[in-house]
Design a protein that fits this description.
By secondary structure, the chain is of the alpha/beta class. 38% of the residues lie in helices and 17% in strands.
């Protein structure tokens, strides 16, 4: 498995590899599908109400990685589980903004911020970090 998964409070924390690209995207996607199947189904959830995807180690995001993330977000939310993302670098945030993925899920700068966020479903775009005025 390419993912590190742990339980913190009511959340599963999934740490993605720093780089998800064409070389490992299918493996990561398979692992995330398995996570949905084994740990996010209502009967096996055991109080988990959200997943925090920790991608803070990523220096940049590829389109293959963004596609894997979006696929996982759709699957998890279809099962009633909110997905929060930790992405703190300038380039990862820019890719999320350009692709519109930052509008579909809540993006945090730190794992602690994501764990503290009690929203369980995304209702409107929100960022925990202010954009610089340009």
């Amino acid at each position: 498995m390419t993912l590190r998964i742990s339980r913190r409070q009511d959340a599963l924390v999934v740490v993605l590899p720093p780089e998800v690209d064409i070389g490992n995207a299918e493996s990561v996607r398979t692992d995330l599908h398995e996570l949905c199947r084994t740990r996010l189904e209502p009967e096996s959830r055991n109080g988990v109400s959200k997943v925090v995807v920790d991608w803070a180690g990523a220096p940049f995001l590829t389109m293959a990685g963004v596609a894997v993330l979006e696929d996982f977000r759709r699957r998890a939310t279809d099962q009633g589980v909110a997905v929060h993302l930790v992405a703190c670098g300038r380039w990862p945030r820019a890719v999320l903004r350009l692709t519109g993925v930052d509008e579909a899920l809540t993006v945090h700068d730190t794992l602690d911020q994501a764990l503290a966020d009690q929203r369980h479903q995304r209702t409107q775009p929100r960022r925990t970090r202010q954009r610089r005025q340009e």
